[in-house]
Amino acid sequence: MDKKKKKLIIVITVILVLAVIGLAIWFFKFRGTGTASGKNAVYVDSVANLAGLSSGDGLNGRYSGVIEPQQTWKIEVSQDKKIKEIYVEEGQEVKIGDKLFTYDTQESEDSLNQSQIDLERIQSDIDTANNNIAELEKEKKEAAADEQLSYTTQIQTAQNSVKRSEYEKKTKAVEIENLKKAIANADVLSEIAGVVKSINKDGTATTSTGEAEPFMTVLATGDYRVKGKVNEQNMSSIIEGNPVIIRSRVDENKTWKGTLTSVETDKPESSQNSMYMSSGSSDTTSSNYPFYVVLDSADGLMLGQHVYIEMDNGQEDHKDGSWLDSYYLILDEEKPEEAYVWAADGKDKLEKRKVTLGEFDEDLQKYQITEGLAAEEYIAYPDDTIEAGAPL
């Protein structure tokens, strides 16, 4: 190949490289501007979605929950006690006062017999010492002067022995009473009406966090509550005392009301068992915390039923027309009944449109839109950077 051809190839190659670089610069600098004026595209959302007129308003985060008893009685067994007999089975219903199990009291009975023998011996020692003291005091009165100190020492020693025996007597009496109570309370009776959920007979059962399960768990019947879980990244949305809506997973229109009562921040669980339905981060290293809801009414709910939990933002209070959050509106101070929104004009551009306002819900901070905006239209958040004619 001659020098001229080589030179021509080099020039063409350089031109092509420069063209590619120029095209790349143009693409990354001007893409998405929509117009030559350099206006950035604006995000819009439907009025139906924002006003809660569609199947979901997208603003109420849902948490999965399960119906559980208001009261759970966990029965622990001391390591120094043995179970003699169990009278119930898992799943069995029990009433208050029903016998659940009984302790083996043979060892306690043997200890009681020995303690009673010990108590009799201690009392005998006290009686003997008191008799000895009385005899020494009698002899001391008749003894010579040089023998008085010896008698005094013997009497004091005997009196100290009585004091020690009296203390031992009191301690032994307390021990005997405790043994009697243990024997008398050998039968463990149910304190609540409910269902026997579990019996940890061999003591090997553990919770999901690795802790030992109690010997027996009884779930109360009647009053229910809802247990949910929240990820640490969404803890700010769970506020004690706030109202919530419990929604059936089978029928969206079937709901119950309740109040969020507590969040157990001292009982974190692995995010792999998360019950939170989130479209956000998939980070598996975060923790989840259980929270509870007390129901206004549990009619129609079943123990163990799975439900959805929503923060009550008034989404169940259906109102006529479209109701928008106040922050989507530009208010006219001179004409309170009028306001403006940034709306899509039907040509993929943004326009400032006047709307007529109706009622104002002070609790929810929402305005009723009576004219100027339809549910199927789209609006944008009124950011300071928005201009008329901006592309969508």
Describe the protein:
By secondary structure, the chain is α+β, with helices and mostly antiparallel strands. The protein contains 4 helices and 21 strands. Strands 1, 16, 17, 18, 19, 20 and 21 form a 7-stranded antiparallel β-sheet that branches. A 6-stranded antiparallel beta barrel has the order 2-10-14-12-11-15. α3 (106-142) runs antiparallel to α4.
Give the ordered list of helices and strands.
HEHEEEEEHHEEEEEEEEEEEEEEE
- The chain-level structural class is alpha+beta
* Mean of residue pLDDT values: 81
Q: What is the number of helices?
A: 4
Radius of gyration: 41 Å
- Overall morphology: elongated
- How many strands, what sense, and barrel or not for the largest sheet? 7 strands, antiparallel
Spans of at least 5 consecutive residues with low confidence: 24-38, 55-59, 272-284
Helix content: 25-40%
Query: Into which percentage range does the β-strand content fall?
Result: 25-35%
Number of separate strands: 21
First-last Cα distance: 55 Å
